[in-house]
Every structure is written in structure tokens, then in C-alpha cells.
Amino acid sequence: MKHIVSGIKPTGSLNLGTYLGSIKNFVELQNSYSYHHFFLFIADLHAITLPIDRQFLRKKIKELAALYLACGLKQERLSLFIQSEVPAHSHMGYLLQCFTYMGELERMTQYKEKKEQAFEGIPSSLFTYPSLMAGDILLYDAEYVPVGEDQKQHLELTRDIATRINNRFGDFFTVPEPLIPKVGARIKSLAYPEKKMSKSDTDTKGHIDLLDEPHIIRKRIRSAVTDSGADIRFDREGKPGISNLLTIYATLENVSVEAIAARYSNATYKQLKDDLAERVVKELSPIQERYRELINSRELNDILDKGRDEALKVANKKAAKLSRKLGLGRGRR
Ligand code: TYM
């Protein structure tokens, strides 16, 4: 059976950007890729590349696990697990560092942006992060990797690393393809529509978290930054605020942005915002309800145990195989 792999960092509350750019897509892919097995994980090793409070991290790991499921992922053909509970991720990450060039890592946009947030020196893990991410994917020989637009560069590097190793050892890794949604891959901040809606953003006005109460959701959308003029049309450059709202709406409705823009072409900004707020509330209410059932349940722990065990089997085998190819240890005994 072929594999689909993806992860999310538990560095903050899950927001609408991550939901629309990733989890919602996973749920739909489970239906359309009905012959694939899904390895989805909580990327906690990636979360410690910048300092993070340990209690906060623990809480976010559990919260993210419950939210993955609350968003509607089905149990069959799914291994949901916590990355650090499968140590082969760190192992493979190190092996792949030996095949990643400094120049490649220096070019990564996310590294360039994130290093600005490191106040007490830049941890080397922030620099080697893409090799760890390549390991996450290549360990499972993923055919597809569903991600938002911001991860495209890391995926390209993963493909280069895989090809490099394949050139040396024959067809060792499956070279993965990114699956980037047509709409929703780049959800922007509501307060600063030129920036992405990000978990690490400390300015709460810009994002909607999946667990936000309806009155907060309505308030945030009502106060979203819009553009001068009063016409509603999709124009990312000229009207970034309105275009972002239209993108959110279109992704929720699974239609094109043009279709939503046409529906609101004679409406006011207020009408668009009011309707969108109700649409977001309608989307998130059942997710929040299911989340509350799951968060402290035995069921959640059982699912994570099962996911870990399934992931361990595949990942240990692949990491051991590459170690042998490289001549590490005593080989097969
Ligand atoms: P992370 O945790 O930043 O984001 C998780 C996923 O959500 C997407 N995303 C968005 N999509 C649209 N609009 C946004 N505003 C938005 N914000 C986030 C991201 O593109 C991503 O798909 N390095 C990864 C996690 C990771 C991973 C992996 C992903 C680690 N190993 C292996 C895939 C495969 C990250 O930091 O994602």
C-alpha cells in the first residue's frame, strides 16, 4: 500500500490557516486516495528548534492530537502519532544531514525568517530542520505529502536529498510529490493580510483558533483589515484583505474564489464579513464539540499508541536499512 505523510508543529493553538491549508485537506484526501495509508504526526521535535515552555508544549501536543481527530479523520488507513515517540525520526534526520549541503540550508526562507526570532543565539537545529523534515517523509517512502504553500521549498529539498541518495544506492527512497491545495494553501493574517496566518504570531487579532468561541470568531472577522474602495473582487495584490476573506470562504465551501467573488459582487464588505463569520462558526462548532469529548479520553491515548506502534514498524526498518547501506554498526547478524 502506498503512503501519504504529513505533520504539524505543536507550537501554538491550531488556527484556521493550518486547518484550511492542511487538516481539512487530509480529511478530503482520505476519501479521494482510498488506496493509501496515512501517517500523520505531531511534529514535536520540530517544535523545540526554538525555545518553548515544556508545560505549554505538552498541552499543545495533546490538544493537536485531539484536534486532528475532531476535524473528522477516519480511523481506517490512518496512523496518528507523536514524532518523538518514534526515535527513528531523529536517527534518519541525522543520516540525511550527511547528505544535505550548507548552501541548500542557507537558502531556506523559513530559516531566514525564523532566525530573527532566536534571541540567545541561533540553535543549529533551526538550520538543520529541513533534513529532519526530509527524514519524516522519506522514512515512510511517502508518495504524496499534503502541505500548504509555505512548505513547498522544504519539499523540494526533500526530493533533492532523496534523488541524491537514490543516485548513490539505486532506488532507495520514493521521491515524494507535494499535494498543495488549489485554494487555501496560503491563508493570510486577518490583521496583516500581507503576512501568513501563523501559530507563532503573538498578535491574536490576526488569527482565529479552532477552539475560539463564536463571539471571538465574529469579532475577529468583523474587525479584519479590508482594503480601500467598496467593491468585492479577488485581487491578491490590489485587495489583499478582501482576497484573503474570499479565499477563506471559498476553501470552506470547496468552491473557487471566483465563484464566491461572483456571489458577493454586489454586496457590502459588512455582508461578506457577517456571512463568513457564520460560516466559520458553523464549521468549527462540531469540531469543538468532538474535541471536548476526546481531549481527556482513553480513546485518544489508544489511538496514539496504535499509531506509534504502526509507525515504529515502518520507520525502524527503513532507518536500519539506510544505516546498513552506509556501513554503520556491525551490519546484519
Ligand atoms: P506547520 O506546523 O507550520 O504547519 C502545518 C501545515 O499547515 C500549513 N499551514 C498553512 N496553510 C495555509 N495557510 C496558512 N496560513 C498556513 N499555516 C500553516 C503548512 O503548510 C503545513 O502543511 N515543517 C512543518 C511540519 C512538518 C511536516 C513534516 C509537514 C514537519 N515534518 C513532514 C509535512 C511533512 C511545519 O512547520 O508546519
Task: Offer a few descriptive terms.
single chain; 333 residues; alpha/beta; Rossmann fold; Tyrosyl-Transfer RNA Synthetase; 2 domains; five-stranded parallel β-sheet; 13 helices; 5 strands; 8% strand; globular; binds tryptophanyl-5'AMP
What does the overall shape look like?
A: globular
Uncertain stretches? none
- Please outline the major beta sheet: 5 strands, parallel
Bound molecules: tryptophanyl-5'AMP
Task: Enumerate how many helices there are, as a single number.
Answer: 13
What's the SSE pattern?
Answer: EHEHHEHHHHEHEHHHHH
C-alpha Rg, in Å? 21 Å
CATH hierarchy: architecture of the largest domain: 3-Layer(aba) Sandwich
Q: Care to describe what's here?
A:
The protein is an alpha/beta fold. It folds into two domains: 2-180 and 297-325, HUPs (Rossmann fold, 3-Layer(aba) Sandwich); 204-292, Tyrosyl-Transfer RNA Synthetase. The protein is 53% helix and 8% strand. The protein contains 13 helices and five strands. It has helices spanning 16-32, 44-47, 54-70, 88-97, 102-106, 109-114, 124-138, 152-169, 214-222, 240-253, 257-263, 269-294, 298-326; strands spanning 2-8, 36-42, 78-82, 142-146, 177-179. The chain has a five-stranded parallel sheet with strand order 3-2-1-4-5. It is globular. The two termini are 29 Å apart. Tryptophanyl-5'AMP binds next to β1, α1 and α7.
